[in-house]
UniProtKB/TrEMBL annotation:
InterPro entries: LytTR_DNA-bd_dom. GO terms for molecular function: DNA binding. Residues 11-24 have a biased composition (Gly residues). Signal peptide: none annotated. Residues 1-27 are annotated as: Disordered. This is LytTR family transcriptional regulator. It comes from Bifidobacterium samirii. The lineage of its organism: Bacteria, Bacillati, Actinomycetota, Actinomycetes, Bifidobacteriales. Coiled coil: none annotated. Residues 191-287 form the HTH LytTR-type domain.
Length: 292
């Protein structure tokens, strides 16, 4: 294979971080492959086996991170897509490497933690390589190599030393929000007293002069207090609490944010409005709440 036969990244080649996109023809636009690889990762962790089965080549063979996963078949991938927990991604990078003879190589890494409502807690950084066959519109994945496991800590394992910094922050934030001393004592508009943990509070919204607390179990509590005043009175307005104001009428628990684009998408699928001029600012604030 000569240099002329292989297309390699030049000075103008970039990588997709998160959901970044690009312009250009599908055959030459490297970000098309990066976005496609990102979609595989996200479809996998949301258990979309129908989509995955349509993208895996008939000759697919994967290599997993666990010792027993030297060779993974299509059925193994689909089984794991159903079995593995839902993840929240804190950092993602996808990079086109090379295209030759109808094959394209994409590599990257992502940091993620289990969605708070999954019942288990773990976080880690995972690296991968994907090999695609064909053009983007009809490409099939022929190989997927995962370099390190993304799993719960084993008995006796020193989890903090294995997890990345982003994972540690997310896990520590979960623990902090669950601590008894962080319990919130609120009085709703009907006069009833409730004791709540910040961890169980998904987001807050404004309703006139009141504040509505939206809980992870679907329940809501309305308190006769403005949003800013409520946050300050309950210690939720500081940089370490994990709550971020995304709009004058909304504050979110960063642990439950799945993505930020022209809106904020929560882990339960709820979409909250976001001023377009503040997208970068809010994205950075949520990342800081989970990573710093």
């Amino acid at each position: 294979m000569t240099d002329a036969e292989m297309t390699m990244p030049g000075d103008g080649a970039g990588a997709v971080d998160g959901a970044a996109g690009g312009n250009g023809s599908p055959a030459r636009d490297h970000t098309v492959w990066e976005r496609l690889s990102r979609e595989v990762i996200h479809r996998f962790y949301t258990g979309d086996v129908v989509w995955l089965s349509e993208r895996l080549d008939g000759d697919f063979a994967g290599i997993g991170a666990q010792p027993e996963q030297y060779r993974i078949s299509t059925q193994g991938i689909l089984f794991n897509a159903i079995a593995l927990p839902d993840l929240v991604f804190t950092s993602e990078r996808y990079e086109w490497v090379a295209s030759c003879d109808g094959l394209t190589v994409v590599m990257g890494q992502y940091e993620a933690y289990t969605a708070p409502d999954q019942g288990i807690v773990f976080a880690d950084t995972q690296r991968f390589t994907m090999v695609w066959r064909g053009e983007p519109a009809h490409a099939r994945l022929v190989h997927w190599h995962v370099s390190n496991p993304l799993r719960a800590a084993e008995e006796g394992e020193q989890f903090p030393y294995r997890a990345g910094a982003a994972g540690l922050r997310a896990v520590s934030l979960m623990a902090e929000q669950k601590r008894y001393r962080r319990e919130l004592r609120i009085q709703d508009v009907a006069g009833a007293i409730h004791r709540l943990l910040p961890f169980d509070l998904r987001y807050l919204s404004v309703d006139g002069h009141n504040t509505v607390l939206h809980m992870t179990d679907g329940s809501t509590y309305t308190v006769h207090e403005g949003l800013s005043s409520f946050l300050a009175a309950n210690g939720l307005d500081g940089p370490d609490g994990g709550f971020v104001r995304i709009h004058r009428g909304y504050v979110v628990n960063a642990l439950y944010v799945r993505s930020v684009s022209d809106k904020v998408v929560m882990t339960d699928g709820m979409e909250l409005p976001l001023p377009s001029r503040r997208q970068s600012e809010i994205r950075e604030a949520i990342a800081a709440a989970r990573r710093d």
